[in-house]
Amino acid sequence: MGIVLPTWNYPHKKQIPQPPLRVGLPLPMTLLKPVVLSIFLLASCNKQRAFNVTVAHGYTGTVSLTCASSADADTQAQVGDKGEGSVACPTRSSDLHVYRDGKEVAPHDVTWVTTGDNIVSAVKFSVQP
């Protein structure tokens, strides 16, 4: 014969019915609005800025830009015949687009020179024929 363990019954305790567990309940509208707003703000903060640089007609060689000021928006710069300039740069490293004679050309050897807190202080790259 096996060992029979006693079962304990507590007649003085009343069983409280539990509601059934539901999976996939929609969020109440009071919670849904802040969640959607938070997702939108996080997505917009992560947007990569564009830095558009226009070089002189037929220019090939190294371009060296010193940042005279910085901006948190898309920025544009014009570069003279010597490939140097003092321009307004984006605050952080951005998507660099270089234009020559109205067409986009691929920049090579792009270097973003930054300060200790990652603010752009200069941009260097080369443009090939």
Record keyword descriptors for this entry:
four-stranded mixed sheet; mainly beta; rod-shaped; 129 residues
Low-confidence stretches: none
Strand content: 35-45%
Mean pLDDT: 80
Shape: rod-shaped
SS summary, helix count: 1
Largest sheet, if any? 4 strands, mixed
Number of strands: 8
Give the ordered list of helices and strands: HEEEEEEEE
Order the strands across the largest sheet as they lie in space. Answer: 3-1-5-6
Give a short synopsis of this structure.
By secondary structure, the chain is mainly beta. Helix content is 13%, strand content 40%.
Structure characterization notes:
This protein has 1 helix and 8 strands, in the order αββββββββ. Helices cover 13% and strands 40% of the residues. The chain has a domain of 78 residues. The model has no long low-confidence stretch (mean pLDDT 80). Strands 3-1-5-6 form a 4-stranded mixed sheet, with no helix packed on it. With 129 residues, it is mainly beta.
Describe the SSE topology.
Layout: H1 29-45, E1 50-54, E2 61-71, E3 75-78, E4 84-90, E5 95-100, E6 103-105, E7 107-114, E8 120-127
Parallel strand pairs: 1-3, 1-5, 2-4
Antiparallel strand pairs: 2-8, 5-6, 7-8
